[in-house]
Amino acid sequence: MVRFKNRYITVEISSPLIPENKPLSLKSKIFHETVLEKIQQLHGDFGVGAVRSGFLTKYCNENTRIAILRARHGPHKFVSSSLPFITKIGKLDVSLRTLHVGATLKHSFKFILKHQRAYLDSMWPKLKTNEERKNLEAAVMDFTKTDVTINIDNIA
Questions:
Q1: What value, to the nearest 5°, has the Cα angle with vertex 93 and ends 88 and 94?
Q2: Torsion sign over Cα 96, 39, 109, 66
Q3: Where are the transmembrane segments (predicted)?
Q4: Cα–Cα distance between 93 and 13 in angstroms, integer?
């Protein structure tokens, strides 16, 4: 039996049109399809064929604008090389920045935890009430924003 090695690419999504304290209206399915379209455009059928078998959007947080993509080791280079060229997700103008490429989801979440803690510290002074602070902290530290329908569609 062969073990497949995966790489988890942590991406920061920034949009110049939407202020940083407002959440993006971003669905992981649209993000997933946009990345595949850009891989098709840059690397052709070979790139899409290599990436598609293990490609999933594991995590997408609209408040902190962070997403995790899973790709197989090897074809993950197609994914990471095409991310900077994505300028639109749906109707939203964006720019993507690769924050971290890790071998396990656990290490990617550890990295995100540190990154989101820094984000929370920077946003804390801008909020006025304790209720706003608690709501932001709950949204930022929520690691359950996974679109299960995409994951089930790609397994079959």
A1: 80
A2: positive
A3: none
A4: 10
The whole-number pLDDT of residue 90 equals 86
* Number of domains composing the chain: 1
Domain containing 31 equals: 6-104
Q: How far apart are alpha carbons 147 and 7 in whole angstroms?
A: 19
How many Cβ atoms from other residues are within 10 Å of residue 155's Cβ? 7
Q: Which two tokens stand for residue 92?
A: 């939203």
Q: Is residue 141 part of a domain?
A: no
- 137 in any annotated domain: no
Q: What is the pLDDT of residue 126?
A: 77
**pLDDT per residue over 60-108, tens digit each?**
888 788 899 999 999 999 999 999 999 999 888 999 999 999 999 888 8
